[in-house]
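Mods, move this if it's the wrong board.
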Amino acid sequence: MQTQLAPEYRARADGLQAEAILRKCVHCGFCTATCPTYQLLGDELDGPRGRIYLIKQVLEGATPTRATQTHLDRCLTCRNCETTCPSGVQYGHLVDIGRQIVDEKVPRPFSEKALRWALKEGLPSPLFAPAMKLGQSVRGLLPAALKAKVPPSPKKLQKAGAWPQRTHARKVLVLAGCVQPAMAPHINAATARVLDATGIEAVTAPQAGCCGAVKFHLNDQDGGKAQMRANIDAWWPHVESGAVEAIVINASGCGVTVKEYGHILQGDARYAAKAERISALARDLSELLPELADRLASRVRPTADTLYAYHPPCTLQHGQKLRGGVETHLARLGFQLRVARTESHLCCGSAGTYSVLNPGLATQLRDRKLGALGEAFGTQPPDAILSANIGCITHLQSGTPTPVKHWIEVLDEALTG
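Not the wrong board. Structure tokens:
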């Protein structure tokens, strides 16, 4: 797609990057067929091709409007379109640039500014954990919309369990995350126990915090980059000494971001090389599953006749291009696992903070996903739904009484000895 940048963007690195991405697009429209928001709304401007044209127009000098901003806001950034695109258009990077530029020119209403500020400052904050505990203690009194975002206290579900104390020659860094320790602490503990059972020690760097995705995708890109640099600083002594062989991330939304540190910080003279190294070491937990399955085959005893539906998060299958691994290797270990017969590629509607900022669309996508997962088993519903990202797990759980878990939890529960 030929693009003539307006003078103000010719001198900007993000303008030149956007131009390079736009030139790959041949406006074929294949992406539209797999876009969740286009399927719901039927508006060309609420599909990837339409949004690409909007961004192109702004870069060529057109004045963006509130409508432009709204169409870009409605994008889930699920990157399904990237999987579909035959030309390799990096739409996710393009929409980040487009949103930032449009936000510079189009003021938001105060209510929107306040909500977005609360999300980007509150979710990664150390105050999030005590706030979540307070919300869980009065969960029954909360309005339905807020109650859906506050999971029951782990005491009412399951305790996190003990973190293994053994040391091993093989070590990996694990990212605890910002919201996961408060919302679902058992996921990190289960990860550490499964790794320990295979002779791998899970190491945490206390100074590491949010991966930076929340702020970055809410157009506080400088704030997001600062969090990325802080993580690099926290991890670097372990990496530089060669003490760890990988950085393992069990939330696919965080994983896709850490794998892009090298891209996001490529213009930072102090951090570019380090960021590239960190991205090269980043591994989604599922990438270790083939080895874990080999080592644990004799020790895993899945509960007989338990049926699991599996929802692969967009950040795993489209963002990280990791497909089929969880299903294949859990099945090899004896778990009865199925994905949706149709639309397994579509987003569940969580998409980071999307379910808070666009609750109507997010709820439609959630219910559509839950329906597809239920249909995978015909007349017999699944006993539990598995996924690989805390956002998807929480969002899906808000729409069903069926337990929704991380796949590492059921692997941990099935371990014997």
